[in-house]
Amino acid sequence: MKKLVIAIDGPAGAGKSTIAKILSEKLGYVYIDTGAMYRAVSWAVLKSGKDVTEENILAVAKDIEVRLENTDSGLHVFADGNDITNEIRTPEVTKIVSMVAMLAPVREKMVHLQRKMAEKGAVVMDGRDIASHVLPNADLKIFLTASIEERASRRYKEMAAKGFDVELSELQKDIAARDKADSERKVSPLVKVPEAVLVDTTGMTIDEVVEKILDMCR
Ligand code: C5P
């Protein structure tokens, strides 16, 4: 089978990372989680201890070196050489990431890296603007979504399993707010491009979703 470039976009909690990771493993492709890169910048802003202002975010983003590494134990995320794979999934990072991802200079730097990582093909990249902006020539474009109730409930189980004390109703509110910010921002908003295949995963198992996308690849 030809080595493909697969773009997966969609709102928060739609299962993009889970699906993209399994797909990349099955196909022997590189997995690029672009959300993790905006989370890495957000983490560094919090770590700096400074107020989360546009000026401080831009200063941190300018100097940071973000790197993704596909390993046998999954995708690892590095900021300035530190493995921050787990640190970027905290509610504190999630709270500010949409604000960080809204800023054009931050996006330009990350998009440049993302395109470089995808240069050789055989990649699955997930995010919000992959089909519309980062990889407009992708071979397969998927828009993955699910009802807000299901997305919140999946995220709840994920966070509870990690030991975070979260409320389902709060999570649902946070997800809705993040979707709104991501869809309404000026630079590269979350959008379904006309040629993307809509996959609504409400009520579907992970295996069913993976199989459906593998079928499209074939
Ligand atoms: O995918 P994940 O939920 O980890 O993404 C975190 C945030 O990063 C999103 O809510 C969005 O603000 C931002 N993001 C983005 N563009 C991407 C990927 C993520 O703006 N390509």
Annotate the secondary structure layout.
Elements: E1 5-9, H1 16-27, E2 30-33, H2 34-48, H3 54-63, E3 66-71, E4 74-79, E5 82-83, H4 91-101, H5 104-118, E6 123-127, H6 130-134, E7 140-145, H7 148-161, H8 168-184, E8 197-200, H9 206-217
Parallel strand pairs: 1-6, 1-7, 2-6, 7-8
Antiparallel strand pairs: 3-4, 4-5
Helix pairs in contact: 1-9, 2-3, 2-4, 2-5, 4-8, 7-8
The chain binds cytidine-5'-monophosphate.
Cytidine-5'-monophosphate is lined by residues 12, 34-35, 38-39, 97-98, 101, 127-130, 178, 182.
Largest sheet: 5 strands, parallel
According to DSSP, the number of beta strands is 8
Percent range for β-strand residues: 15-25%
Low-confidence stretches: none
Mean pLDDT equals 96
Strand order of the largest sheet: 2-6-1-7-8
Work out the radius of gyration.
Answer: 16 Å
CATH domain class: Alpha Beta
Helical percent range?
40-55%
Structural class: alpha/beta
Ligands in the model, by name, code or SMILES, are: cytidine-5'-monophosphate
Corresponding CATH superfamily: P-loop containing nucleotide triphosphate hydrolases
Overall body shape: globular
Assign the CATH topology. Rossmann fold
Ends apart, CA distance between termini: 7 Å
CATH architecture: 3-Layer(aba) Sandwich
Count of DSSP helices?
9
Q: How many structural domains does the protein architecture include?
A: 1
Q: H/E element string?
A: EHEHHEEEHHEHEHHEH
Domain Cytidylate kinase: 6-216
Binding site for ATP: 10-18
Keywords: ATP-binding, Cytoplasm, Kinase, Nucleotide-binding, Transferase
InterPro entries: Cytidylate_kin (IPR003136), Cytidylate_kinase_dom (IPR011994), P-loop_NTPase (IPR027417)
